[in-house]
Structure formats: C-alpha cells, structure tokens
Amino acid sequence: MNNQDLLRIAEEFGDPVYVYDAEKIIFQYNRLISAFKDVENLRINYAVKALSNMSVLRLFNHLGAGLDTVSIQEVQIGLEAGVDPSKIIFTPNGVSLEEIEQAAELGVQINIDNLSILEQFGAKHPEVPVCIRINPHVMAGGNTNISVGHIDSKFGISIHQIPHTLRIVENTGMNINGIHMHTGSDILDIDVFLYASEILFESAKQFKDLEFLDFGSGFKVPYKEGDIETNIEELGQKLTKRFKDFCKSYGRKLTLAFEPGKFLVSEAGKFLVKVNVIKQTTSTVFAQVDSGFNHLIRPMFYGSRHEIHNISNSQGRERFYSVVGYICETDTFASNRKIEEIKEGDILSFSNAGAYSFSMASNYNSRFRPPEVLWYEGKAHLIRERETFEDLLKGQVAVDFEKLASVE
C-alpha cells in the first residue's frame, strides 16, 4: 500500500478515513508465531480493544488466532465474527458478577481478577473452568496509564493474596485451568518481561490442574524510523526455553498464550486527513486539519507520537509545522514537526493509527466518526461506513416541552 493507493482511498471514501493494511497485520501475526515456533501449544489471542471492527476480527479468525475480550459486547462481536467461543478469553476488570455469568453462558474462557467475584462465581458455578489474573507487582509500560501490573494497580489479584485464592478454590471446589498476567504496554526491556514471567511460573506451581499460562502482551512497536521496539525474536528464544522447563517440572504440557493488540495492528493503520487551513502566527505555522482528538486521542491522552507525512507532496522540501485539529479545545497532533511542505487541501497521513484510534474515537463536538477501510490483496474494502446525522440522533428521545407545559 503506497502513497498513491492512500490518495485514491481518500478520494473514493472521503476524509478523514482510517485505512488498515491486512498484509502488515498478517506479517506481524506470523512474526509472533515464528518467534515461538518451538512451543508445541501456542495460542495468540488478539486483544479486541485495540481495533474491534468485525472484518478485522474475521481476518484474525481466518489466521487461526483467538480473541482477548474485556467486555460482554466484545465477546458478542467476536461471536458475530464467527470466532468459536472456545477461542475467546474474557478478561474484564471491575464488572458485575452478572456480566461474567453472561459470558460463561456463551461458552468463553472466564478470567477473574479479584477475590470477591472469584468466591461468588466459584460458589455458584464450580463446574465452570476459570483463569485467574494475578498482579505480579512489576512496574512496566511506556506510560502510567498503560502500566497495569504494579502494586497500586486496580488490575489482578496480588501475588501476596495467593494463599487466600487457594483457600477460595478449595472451599468452592472450582476448577482453575489458567493463570494470567499483564504488566503493561510498550514494554521495551524483555528482561522486565522475563522477570515478571518468573513470578507467573512461581504462582502457577501452586495450582495443580492448569491447562494454559497467559503472559499478556505489551510489546513495543516503533513509532518513527529507527525507533526501538521489543525484540520479539530474542524474547521468543528465551521464554520458550523457560516455558518448556516449567512444563517439564510441572508434569504436563501446557499452552502458552499471548494477547497482543497494538503489536498486531498499530503499524498496519494509517489515518488520512485533509488540511483545511495553513495559519501563520507570530511564532508558529499551523496546519489545521479536518479532524481532532475526537478521531485520534492518543497524542493528547498518552503523549504518543505518530509520524505525519504529506502524501500529496511526498517529495517536497521539509518545513516546520504544528498540526492541529478542529476541536474547540487544544488538540495538537504534532508541535514544530518537520513535514513535507503543506498546502491547503493536501492529504496528511498519520502512521501507527491501527490501534486505539477508531476504538477510542467519539462524537465530541457532534462530529461524525470516519469510515474504516481494509486494504487486502491490492484492493480497498469498506469495512465501516462514515457516520451520518441520523447516527448522531439515533437513540435520542425528544421531549415535547410545549405539550408538557399545556398539560401542567
């Protein structure tokens, strides 16, 4: 998928628009599979929250992946996409017992991360296999909002509460078939990941009927040329050896599971916007585009960096611009960034827009959410239509104040 392809997509489907390259998704999936090729039983569960379009889920199902879900709605979308419930794991946080029971009725793998729900669910449904999410108390991740395995995190059952967990399991007679952890996202140092894995292995020893160990994900992807990323190949070599040793000592061949999201789809995504205005102030040249944090909130929420290129003038001389949106608050995508010379009407392409872009989009300022396009085998396929004014009004109920006033 080159710049000319992207320009044709912007012309055909309008702008702004999200575009996903299926070839890159497949490449990343196969790269992960290859890194752990010596693991006999490997399960890759795609983290739906990163990008939940049904066609993307169907692609992962076609590749053989399972799904990692965090809400009952994600479970239902996965089932609608044709994924077998046995290949879906449900890992919510802080949801009601009723939602977990609803997921169990659909036949998916349940993953529980607090003692209260564990005890309640075990007492009512001891026959349903349950995975336990532990908190390894390891600080890892590229931002405090995505570091979820530290001691003050709301996620997981503390490793110091394992004795209490075992008591609940014994009292209820429930079946614990998996142990899970997730330390955070954008993990660069694989030694931190391996250290946390040792904690998972140590915890797993205390449960006798396990079928799988889920190591979460959080692998870092590059955000600019020459950027550092998680060395998946080295991690695969080192963790595979350690996992095999654990299985031997445990006395049973287990499944090794991961739940990558960003790693699989981030680099596959481009977000295309049009430049409405070039605004020169006393100190800055603003390129004001037809989008804002209603469509791409990550730079404002996480401070994330997205490379920006002017695909309408890809060979142009680079100049410094601040790229900003049209929202009635500060929504800066890039400050004082070198970009190929920009004119009004040019199309800019934001990289790394596959993960947490559309899925975190909103109708703030009553703006429509853009369409989504999947580039597959050299063709552009519309996989979500652009929203319309009718979509904004859907579900709203108009109160007739004149009628109410006459009744009073």
Number of strands: 18
The second-level CATH architecture of the largest domain is Alpha-Beta Barrel
What can be said about the biggest beta sheet?
A: 9 strands, mixed
Taken together, the total number of domains comes to 2
Nearest-angstrom radius of gyration?
23 Å
How many alpha or pi helices?
Answer: 13
Structural class: alpha/beta
- Looking at the structure, what is the overall shape? globular
CATH class of the largest domain: Alpha Beta
Average pLDDT over all residues? 93
Could you characterize the architecture of this molecule?
The protein has two domains: 36-260, Alanine racemase (TIM Barrel, Alpha-Beta Barrel); 269-393, Lyase, Ornithine Decarboxylase, Chain A, domain 1, CATH 2.40.37.10. The chain has helices at residues 3-13, 22-35, 54-63, 72-80, 97-105, 115-124, 162-172, 190-204, 232-250, 262-265, 298-301, 389-393, 401-407, and strands at residues 17-21, 42-47, 66-69, 88-90, 109-112, 130-135, 157-158, 176-180, 212-214, 255-258, 269-280, 285-289, 308-310, 318-324, 332-340, 347-350, 372-376, 379-384. Strands 1, 11, 12, 13, 14, 15, 16, 17 and 18 form a nine-stranded mixed β-sheet that branches. An eight-stranded parallel beta barrel has the order 2-3-4-5-6-8-9-10, surrounded by six helices. The protein is 31% helix and 23% strand. The chain is an alpha/beta fold and 408 residues long. It starts with a helix and ends with a helix. Substrate binds at residues 298, 302, 329, 356. This is Diaminopimelate decarboxylase.
